[in-house]
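DM from R.C. (forwarded with permission)

"hey, sorry to bug you on a friday — could you get me a structure for this? deadline for the figure draft is monday and I only need the backbone to look sensible"
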Amino acid sequence: MRVGSVDVLVLSAPTLDGDPGMVDALHEALDSGAVALIDIVLIARGSDGTLSFADVDDGLPASLQDLLAHPSPMTLLSDRDVALASSSVANGEVGLLLVLEHRWARRLAERIQDMGGVTRLHERVPHDAVVRAFKADGAAAT
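My reply, with the result:
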């Protein structure tokens, strides 16, 4: 099975209830076919700092169920990965730890491979660095 490049994202918000914007945006990205979700962990940190976790085996909220591209989640995330991700979720926040495959990149890489070529480099530029570069060029960016 060919796979595209994979990214791990940690998104956090005060809640997943109420404003469904984050979950809706995830659904839109998945529905477009550009990315596929291959693993997900919900991280909740109480106001007292107490952590709780949920994954597909632990009963994710209904809005997050049935999003995975494969019938069972991949085991790309270790306990250390989850611990590291949870350290970025503040007290009173809910975080989503997402493992996304870039299917658009897989399709492009397949075409290049079919021509006898190879992907030589794939590097993620951190968001903050992109914003700084835009601002340095006088463009508004957030």
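R.C.: lifesaver. The chain has a mean pLDDT of 86.
me: no worries. Residues 56 and 66 are 9 Å apart (CA to CA).
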